[in-house]
TrEMBL record:
This is TVP38/TMEM64 family protein. Residues 68-181 form the VTT domain. Pfam families: VTT_dom. The keyword ATP-binding does not apply. The keyword RNA-binding does not apply. InterPro entries: VTT_dom. It comes from the Archaea. The lineage of its organism: Archaea, Methanobacteriati, Methanobacteriota, Stenosarchaea group, Methanomicrobia. The chain crosses the membrane at residues 12-31, 47-65, 72-94, 133-153, 165-189. Signal peptide: none annotated. Keywords: Membrane, Transmembrane, Transmembrane helix.
Length: 190
């Protein structure tokens, strides 16, 4: 990891990322009302597509701070058309996964872990070999696992982004459809 810190550009990016994460966390602690997802609902009454776009931005950027998406999805179910919500969620997840994948690759986490844990990485790569998409899809569909973690792992293992995104698409499509159909049915929405 020492080589990583020898590159000033990466130091700045990492410092900015840490600053953003700490700033968001501090703002959440000091001003929790700003993070109340019902604000999107209030906005959606008058400015529906603006609220949907803001929701998309939140879903797209949340991977950088490892924010769970289930609360946002449940709030979205209450305020948006289920079909539009599904499309926006999947687009947001794929955007978030792309950002996380590229960010992890930029930081060079794969090279670091390969040097630090060569045998373990070799074993994990062997496990993933020819099963990348099903593994990512399964991880993504499980409700209590964080999809961004498997994206970081695939990037670190130098698994092609297309395979990673295909797995995210499959897994997140299944779990999102399940949540949206179940919750709208239970609550009698639409």
């Amino acid at each position: 990891m020492k080589e990583f810190f020898d590159e000033p550009g990466k130091k700045i990016i990492l410092a900015l990322w840490i600053l953003i994460v700490l700033s968001v966390f501090t703002a959440w602690l000091l001003y929790p009302h700003l993070f109340d997802l019902s604000n999107i609902g209030k906005l959606s009454v008058k400015y529906y597509y603006t609220a949907l776009f803001i929701y998309f931005i939140i879903i797209s950027l949340r991977g950088l701070i490892l924010m769970p998406t289930t609360p946002a999805l449940i709030a979205g179910i209450l305020f948006f058309n289920p079909y539009q919500l599904f499309i926006v969620n999947i687009a947001g997840y794929l955007t978030s996964a792309t950002i996380v994948y590229r960010y992890s690759g930029y930081l060079g986490t794969g090279e670091y872990f390969e040097r630090k844990y060569p045998e373990e990485i070799k074993s994990i790569k062997k496990l993933f070999l020819k099963r990348e998409i099903p593994i990512v899809a399964l991880w993504s569909v499980l409700p209590f696992t964080h999809t961004d973690i498997i994206v970081y792992v695939t990037s670190s293992l130098n698994i092609r982004i297309k395979k990673c995104l295909a797995g995210v698409f499959i897994g997140e499509s299944i779990i999102n459809a399940f949540y949206i159909i179940s919750i709208t049915g239970i609550l009698g929405l639409q």
